[in-house]
Amino acid sequence: MAMEMPKTNRNQADRGRQGILVFSRVAQRDLFADDKIEETGGGWRLRIRNPWYTGTYLSTVSFVRITVNGYTVPEERTFLSLRGQRIPSAAAKNLYELWWGMGEAAEVYLADEAVVKVLREKNTVQVDIDMRTAFSYGFPNDTLPYRLSGELEVK
């Protein structure tokens, strides 16, 4: 009696789409460390957790875009902060020595005066992050694109 081998999905592009869907669902659930956007001396702050399923170097973050109520904050006005080290989001891809631990919250600073004009009591915040992967999971260009959103209150 011949045993039938289970069929596997060998379509790399299809497997990549499946992986993006699975990882994005997990990240959507855990992305925001809290439900607030706070005013700081130089703009606004929100906190996000590492969306990857394990810890990684900040250099894997190759792209960050934050949109508040439909307004996209310019990249040069977006900063990431880990353990007090504040970095322009565009420079994150060059930081190989800064580790972003699993579940660790990073602060995202929006140093853009225009944000105040679009803020309401409750705000839809869209976070787009592209993270390069250390191994090939079948994602296009070995990059996992997260497109996540949540509702944050002004505090």
Describe this structure in words.
With 155 residues, this protein is mainly beta. It has one domain: Immunoglobulin-like. The protein contains two helices and eleven strands, in the order αβββββββββαββ. The strands form two sheets. It has a nine-stranded mixed beta sheet with strand order 5-4-10-11-1-2-9-6-7. Strands 3-8 form a two-stranded antiparallel ribbon. The longest helix is centred in the N-terminal third of the chain and has 19 residues, at 12-30. The radius of gyration is 18 Å and the shape is globular. The model has no long low-confidence stretch (mean pLDDT 89).
Secondary-structure map with pairings?
Blueprint: H1 12-30, E1 36-40, E2 43-49, E3 56-57, E4 61-68, E5 71-72, E6 78-82, E7 85-88, E8 99-100, E9 105-110, H2 115-118, E10 122-132, E11 143-154
Parallel strand pairs: 1-11
Antiparallel strand pairs: 1-2, 2-9, 3-8, 4-5, 4-10, 6-7, 6-9, 10-11
Short description:
This protein is mainly beta and 155 residues long. It is 15% helix and 41% strand.
- Characterize the overall form: globular
Q: How much is the average pLDDT? A: 89
User: Percent of residues in beta strands?
Assistant: 35-45%
User: How many domain modules?
Assistant: 1
Structural class by sheet pairing and helices: mainly beta
| Residue share in helix | 10-25%
Q: How would a textbook summarize the main sheet?
A: 9 strands, mixed
Physical arrangement of strands within the biggest beta sheet: 5-4-10-11-1-2-9-6-7
Strands, count: 11
- N- to C-terminal distance: 68 Å
* Poorly predicted tracts of residues: none
The name CATH uses for the topology is Immunoglobulin-like
* Rg calculated over all Cα atoms: 18 Å
Under the CATH scheme, the architecture is: Sandwich
Counted by DSSP, the helix tally is 2
User: Which CATH class is shown?
Assistant: Mainly Beta
Looking at the chains present, what oligomeric state does this protein adopt? single chain
User: What is the chain-wise order of helices and strands?
Assistant: HEEEEEEEEEHEE
